[in-house]
Amino acid sequence: MEEHQEDLASLSDLDEKSLLESLTLRFNQNQIYTYIGDILVAVNPFKYLSLYEKEVSEKYKYHEKSSLPPHIFAVADRAYQSMLGRLGTGPKNQCIVISGESGAGKTESTKLLLRQLVELCRANSQLEQQILQVNPLLEAFGNAQTVMNDNSSRFGKYIQLRFQNSSVKGAKINEYLLEKSRVVHQDEGERNFHIFYCMLAGISPHDKEMYGLLEPTQYRYLNGRSIQDDAVQHWSAKFGEVSNAMDMVGFEEQEKVDMMTILAGVLSLGNITFETTDSDALKVTEKCQGWLKATAGQFGVEAEELQRCLTCTMSVARGEAIYRFHNQQQAEDARDSIAKVVYGRVFGWIVSKINELLTHTLDSKVELNEIGILDIFGFENFAVNRFEQLCINLANEQLQYFFNHHIFLMEQNEYKEEGIQWETITFKDNKPILDLFLTKPIGILSLLDEQSNFPQATDGNFVDKLNSKFKANPHYDVVRSHCPLFAIVHYAGKVQYNASGFLEKNRDNIPASIRNLFINSVTPLLSVLFSATISRTGTLMPRRANLQVVDDNFNSTRKQSVGAQFKHSLAVLMEKMFVANPHFVRCIKPNASKLPDLVDRKLVMDQLRYNGLLETIRIRREGFSWRPSFKEFAQRWDPFCIFHVYLLCLHSISCMSILNTTELSGWKCGSSRLFFKYWHQEELARLLERLGKAAVVIQKNYRAVSCRRKFLVLLAELRQQAQQEREEEERRQQHLAEEERNRHLLMEQENKRPVSMPVPLPRMRKPQPRPRSILTGAAQVSHPVPVPRPRSKLLEATPFDNDLNKNADPIKPFGQPADEESAKEKCKKRNNTIRWFKETQVRKVAQNGTFPCWFHGMITRRQAEDLLTDDKPVGCFLIRVGQSREGYTLTYRGANRYRHYMIEMQSNGKYVILGEDRAHSSLPDLVQYHTQVGIKPFMELLTMPCGQRCNHEPDYEEFKAMMAPTVAESNEANVGEAVQEELDPVQLELQRLFLPLGQNPALEAHKPPVLKRMFDRRRRIEAAELECKAGQEAELKGRPIPRLYPSIRLAMREIQQIQQVWKTLLSA
């Protein structure tokens, strides 16, 4: 029975009760995933389950659906295989749609899908780790705690992974409708965005002073709440993850500092309050003057200009500037509006920066496939629902329509068009609700834009307009109340909306004076944010050049409203999804209390009903989810076609031939396409895999026979050649024997002649000594063929490295001449690497004028292994410079072999071991970190650095000259001391006499005791101040700081002094 429960489409009794019982039973057994055909249902367990370990991930790589239990990893694998064209269809873009209520587990499902997709296409590149770091970064800035979810996404995102063949080559993030109003207001039981609590808990006390941050209780935008002691450690660790994620993705250090300073300015801005003057104009209260100065310093603007923008609006009429002063409410609205737009643009810049860093290497000419993952805010129904909830629920209506259209409408229409007998399955169509929102010119969003264009229109006027237009609509309810309320009957239930603030939020205007002020900020990031343009979908588009731009009618009526931007972004999203092959994950929330092992049967049943899962089970059980055309099917599965040559153009006959060969059952044939069950794709893929294995066996045997034949032919030729050589040798021997006989005959004839008298020979000269050769012995000695020495087992599977000694002759394999071009290229790369190290790295690696003992310069892999061979323990390591690339390699001695880890240097100057998920500011920091945390995937700790071969001959010969400036500086210092020692005694005496009063020991003895005590006290104070200042300067030296750091520090001191005065007055 359990096997049937894994796929609800196989339930024998199909009703709501059996569906709920099956899901409840599996949930109680910690089986949170269930199939409905090819659709995955995921129930949030609200606890940790060991379903996502490395071993489980490996099982779901290239697996058959029926061989393993339902899992989120199976959806990732199916999407990846479909994208590569390994399943029923050819290569095609894919999208994974994750939907469900707020708190149903959509964000966690997205992270798991992303992780598994990266595992499937792992190519050991840094890009994969950068993609995985995007989620924690966006979570910190876009998620917050709500009454329904502790980690609720307050924005929507569509992640597009771009692939070339089977490897990921880039990623793009599309964000939708950030809930900016949360920055300035949170309901009871809710919190602001996570990043504020991360900053206040994770930043060091000194950095808090640098950014201008105080305790959380000081800030009105955080509702004056403190961070609980048990939560401080959580938020501090979260801040470390966010900082590391920004380093991994590639954010510059100065960009991080500017961003944190701007966020601190948002918090400070919320503490500014106003009071009226004698002339009925507004000004910032005396108590908040420090907050005004702090905000101005953090934003990089003048405090007077910021106060003017908050308290009045400037307009130009006939060339004359006219100032209109704000009342109390208008000034507070302007303050909150600035905070919202600043935070929204920081978030948009982060997304834009991520896209820039993750797509900079993509070639626009290369066609790439995509897998998109949609993680969008879930359906919401709070006690008070505002403009944000209206847009969120509209997005969920659009997703439900996409699901209905793909699962029910499109499928059943094709049955009718193709003449397939089918009993129509009714479903809850939400198209009328979408028309209520999106129809022009009388849809809710169109009427909202119309009212937003009238400056005197109110939220009450908007609701009255809706009541008059839609009172007869069955999906709209009129609410009788003094407040501007109305209700919409959504697919998930009736929701009542409070229209207060609808018009202002839809306009989303800020004064032009504020924009001009921030464009001229001394903080470059803030200037970039406000000089950027906003696309039709609401996406921030930073300008790459000429940041100082003329006024572009930012507040004109042509500017798109928030509702229009959201409507257009939804249309673009649906366009992308309709052209892709969708995979659905339906997330279910088991209870509203966020407790594990608890099922609220009524809540679960409500979700099953409005998601239409009962109807989905019916259409998946009885319908045909895979519907390829004759041509598509014949082209994809033509290996099964026996008469492929003759039926090339007759696709329908080819399809019948293929189906007869495979002996599939349960399919139907229409007029132009075939209709298959959801499990037919896997069955055909399994048959094709079996055919492929059979083809491999045939190829193996054919190649074996073919190679055998070739071998026999070559063997016969060799034998014939050997026979010919033997015959040739016999003829040669016979010829030599004949010549020997002839020589003997001649000698015999010579011996028979008469003997004559001997003739004396001339006397030979004494041999002279031979002159010495002018060639050196080294040139006369021929180089023997090098024989590689035996290697130890530690070095197995490690290729030999060429000797880098320029004087040694290159090895010529098999007697071939050396490749001069290759040698020149290698030398060029080596020189470029040395130049890179000299210009960018030598000051970072060298410490106190010397290199660390674990640094061994530019040595080969073979040389590095040789250094670690001589009685070195496990964990011994060294770092060397790459010979052909700008980077380093960490060589590590493991238990049974050596490992070589590549160290990449990112564009922001951070160091990362390839495959690791942590960035380091320097190589010593990297070494220190991995002495405590093992290197993945073997979790190996660095225990002992490998020293140099000899104290007099270090391994970094190429870099000796780079240390010359340091040596020269020390020599200059020694020379200076020597010169000082050689000064004339008269000069030394004059110098002693003209020393300052407090520094002349001779005069100190004649000083009166009172003056001596005064001078001692002053000297101690000055020394303490100098020591404190030197400590601060040393700490800040070499790291970026806020642009107006002195102003921020003075403002924070003023705030603390004012608070101390108020505490004293209150206590008195």
Defining traits:
five-stranded mixed β-sheet, Myosin motor domain-containing protein, cell projection, Myosin_head_motor_dom-like, seven-stranded mixed β-sheet, 11% strand, 48% helix, 1068 residues, alpha+beta, Kinesin_motor_dom_sf
So what's the overall shape? flat
What's the count of strands?
25
What distance lies between the first and last C-alpha atoms, to the nearest angstrom?
77 Å
The whole-angstrom Rg is 40 Å
Task: Enumerate the strands of the largest sheet in spatial order, edge to edge or round the barrel.
Answer: 1-2-18-3-12-6-7
pLDDT < 50 runs, ≥5 residues: 545-557, 644-648, 772-783, 791-818, 966-973, 975-981, 993-998
Largest sheet: 7 strands, mixed
Tally of individual helices: 36
Indicate the percent of residues in helices: 40-55%
Beta-strand share of residues? 5-15%
Average pLDDT, to the nearest integer? 81
Structural class call reads alpha+beta
